[in-house]
Specification:
The chain is an all-alpha fold. It has helices at residues 5-33, 39-54, 58-61. It contains three helices and no strands. It is elongated, with a radius of gyration of 16 Å. It comes from Marivita geojedonensis. Pfam families: DUF2842. InterPro entries: DUF2842.
Length: 73
């Protein structure tokens, strides 16, 4: 079942308000486990976690910045 534009906008807001802080906590936790790695390892961890966080929610964010296609003109 496809989400409506309004539902996708609401879910995008929830994901950004809940998901972004969770992403930051996950990054800090992983880097603490590694005991202050080198810059390149740290950068790689941020990139991998950023991609893993964003991929499942790609369909929610697609087209959110565009005008509502279901709105009456």
């Amino acid at each position: 079942m496809a989400l409506s534009y309004k539902a996708r906008k609401r879910w995008a807001l929830v994901i950004l308000l809940v998901g972004m802080p969770a992403y930051v906590v996950a990054c800090v936790t992983v880097l603490n486990w590694l005991d202050r790695p080198s810059f390149l390892v740290e950068l790689l961890v941020y990139i991998v976690l950023g991609i893993l966080w964003a991929l499942p929610f790609k369909f929610v964010f697609k087209g959110i910045g565009q005008p509502d296609p279901d709105a009456e003109k």
